[in-house]
Please model this.
Amino acid sequence: MPAEALKCKECSTAYPLEARYVCERCFGPLEVAYRPPSSDAPALKRRIQAGPHTLWRYADFLPLEGPARSALPTGWTPLVRAHRLAERLGLREVWIKNETANPTHSFKDRVVSVALARALELGFGTIACASTGNLAGAVAAHAAAAGLPAYVFIPADLEPEKILSAGAYGARIIGVEGTYDDVNRLCTEISGEREGWAFVNVNVRPYYAEGSKTLAFETAEQLGWEMPDRVVAPVASGSLFTKVARGFQDWIDAGLLAGELPAMHGAQALGCSPVAQAFAAGTDVCRPVKPNTIAKSLAIGNPADGPYAIDLARRTGGSIESVTDDEIRAGIRLLAETTGIFTETAGGVTTAVLAKLAEAGAIDPDECVVAYITGDGLKTLDAVRDSVEVARIEPRYEAFEAVEAQEVVA
Amino acid sequence: MPVTVKLPTQLRAAAGGAAEASADGATVGEVLDALYAQHGGLRERIAGDDGELRRFVNVYLKGEDIRFLDGLATPVSDGDEVTILPAVAGG
Model:
């Protein structure tokens, strides 16, 4: 399904497949448009199944010209049947798409893989990004593996785990005094001035965003070429959320899947919930907010794809929900205790929203639900610091027995 | 009161290639109107038929999104900087 053009999502103006992201007529976002697949569904399926165990097995649905490859293999992460979590929530079939299993422990490896591959095709020599944390690490690592210089721009108050892990790959780290939205504004300006720089989520954003479709492709393939009934996924800019649905839709259109899109539920932290607020208010105008939440990877106060996320939730019978910081911490705990998967705050948001929907009776107990756990708990350790107790003892058996006795009494 | 308006690369062709312009006005809205008077092609790109900003256009006054201020009615002072940028980035 070769890419054909970049098309404005607002006014449909078409542009060549270059490094551009904004419609010059109306400022709407550009999205990759494809020609219909040249192969029939059985041939596409065979080609996918013969492909590598990385996101490149879906190259037929990605916007690259040449053979797709990357120095840091990404994707094909586990889809885990979460029996114990389902039981706790009174549901039958809950699956966790475990994106912590990617090379830099978040789904951002997918979008960066596609953005970097396309940036190389377009002749760029430097990779950059505006990041809430996970993207910084992914850009730094993939650039290092490809031998390209990388610049990552982050809010200066980001979690140290995310700053240090990005720095370890040798990227130039610029800590901007301000929110992510300030960083984003700065990077939008810089990208207009620095030719030769591919900002993965600015000037090559249309290609970058396509990488998130592979979350849907993998899920469908791992479910035996079926779609779930319901999806819960985090919403920051709204890009992942809308592209997961786009991935399912691509495969419906290609004849690889039958049926309707899943009900799409978006998850936000209450302290940064412009999309959830607009959804609740019945509008598609996301009023920007100043983020104040422990879920820093979702702390985008001015979400680019907010209106599309709201439209998607409405037309699929889903919703956009928000949860408090305490609920986020409880969500991290719930997922870890029932699945063995330790997620960062964004995954806490997703799990907490899943729990909230289950509690409210919004999920039919017989439905198949997939929750996207997009990042690793080791990157946001502060979120669990106060919830873990260490029993400190002398190295004597009696001392151990004594604390065990205390534990039983407590 | 002249205010400097910084234009994104996507708008420069419609402004004769300029990266910035100087425009007069007491509010952000008036400054933009003065800008449209200089470069007629900019109006339809920045504003909808109702005169409000298009939904994927962000306008900043001294680095602050005007939606956190008084929108187009936000007062401006001599020498202020207004920046227009596409909203479609990030995430």
